[in-house]
Every structure is written in C-alpha cells, then in structure tokens.
Amino acid sequence: MTKQKILGTGLSGLVGSRIVELLSGKFEFEDISRKTGINITDSKAVFDKISASEASVVLHLAAYTDVKGAEKEKELKEESESWKINVIGTQNVAKACEKTGKKIIYISTDLVLGGDDMPEGGFTEDALPNPLSWYAVTKYEAEKVIEKTSSPWIITRTAYPFRASYEKSDFVRFFRDLLRDGKPIPVLTDRLISPTFIDDLAGAFEALIEKEATGIFHTVGSQIISLYDAIIMIADNFNLDKSLIKKITREEFLVGRPPEPFSSALSNAKIKQLGVNMHTFEEGLHILK
Length: 289
Description:
Layout: E1 4-9, H1 14-23, E2 27-32, H2 43-52, E3 57-60, H3 67-72, H4 81-100, E4 103-109, H5 134-148, E5 153-158, E6 161-162, H6 171-180, E7 185-188, E8 192-193, E9 196-197, H7 198-210, E10 215-218, E11 225-226, H8 227-237, E12 245-248, H9 250-253, H10 269-272, H11 281-288
Parallel strand pairs: 1-2, 1-3, 3-4, 4-5, 5-10, 6-9, 7-12
Antiparallel strand pairs: 8-11
C-alpha cells in the first residue's frame, strides 16, 4: 500500500521530529528546512520545492518560537527576524500551496488568544484573538494569511508542548532539570495554561488529514491548570523537591518580560469530536516518566 506523502516545514524540530517518528509508518515525510538547504523566507526556493513535490498536504511547523527574543526585536516590526520567519515564511508557503493546489496545515499557538475572563472549559476556536506579545502578534498575523488562502487550510493551536526526550529543552524537561539541579524557581500562580503531550499531536494530525478536515482546531491537552500547579505536578512526578518552587504573580514576574494573559487555556472539545484522545497533563507526565 502506497503511503500518503506529506511535505513538512520544521520536521526536525521539537514537535515535527516526534510526529515523523510516530507517523512514518502511515505517511511518507519530506522536509523543507535549513537542514535540507531551504530557508522559508526565500519565496522562490519554497515554491520550487513545493511545486516539485507529489505531496498533497503541507504541514507548516517551522517558526520563530523564542518569545523573549521576539519581544526584544519588536521595534523592528516587519524587519524583525520573528516577523520574517513567522509571517513572510508563512506567506511563501501559503502562496506556493495556492499555486499548486495543496492543502496547508499551519501550527499556531495558544498565545494568539487569552485574557482575564476565561470561558468555562477554556477558549474555543471562535474566541476573539488577543495577542499580547510580539511573538503572539506574528503568529496571529500568520493565521490571517492562512485564512485568506484559496487552498484548503487548517490552523491548529497548541500550547506548552512536551515529550520524553529531544536535544533541546521543552516545557516539562526545562523545569524538571532546574529542580534536579536544586535551583529555586519563581512560578506564576495567576497564569492558566493547557499543556500538550506531543505524542497526542501526532494522533490529531493523523485524524485531521484522514478526515479531510478544514478550519481551526485547538490541539491541546485536556487539563486546564495554573503554571504553579503544573510545576508542582512535575516535581511530584519525578520525586523532586517542591520547596524549591516559589509563588509569584504576573505583576511581579513579568516586569521587563513579554506580556502574558491570566489565561490562554484552550478548549479541545472540537478535536475530540474527531475521536482524538488528548491526555491530561497528569496523564502525559505519567506516560513520559
């Protein structure tokens, strides 16, 4: 049986590499990245690669994800590296998909939404955008690019992804390693999130592709939790010293840092309707351990 071909940007990254590991039995992946000699801000290189591929779906994961780094360059606006990668890069991929008739699946972030008044169960896909940081602005602008494309499209929003192992740190392993090193950690008590076990994203993308879905989907974990409680849970899961975890508020902690809402926790009810299982944070930690 011939595998369906998927062309992907950022398939060597934290999320992309795990998706390839888990779904390579079902799909044949082809990577567009600097590792394969293509910069997504180069429109001609992107178009040439996409038009030459037999894949009918482009999974666009590549992004500038350094939230602090993006905030430092926000005065540069459209000349900033974060804008060029997240917005111009997305424009290049979207235009190439339009011209070649390929479907595009774009991976966005919970940070395009959020605020002080969270609906019960988290923000749904039709919530009004509220990007506070420059990183969030660039991701939201990229979403608008996708929504205007004439190709079939999907936008997935994810949050605080974590996995068992990878060359770079992630949400769970960053805090686990600080605690293992015996370092005190100031952690926000007034910040609600919906952390995502990356293995679940593979199942979500598989379902979205196979069911030929379109539109916006929140692909996040099934537990809304404060950042403080999440770090306590990490300490419990790995038998680490909880006394190192110090309570702090956004008002105290975010001075000189990128702004964050009280809650960017998302509802995943829509993706669950496709039969996708998204674990709670607690379940994901147990599996990871």
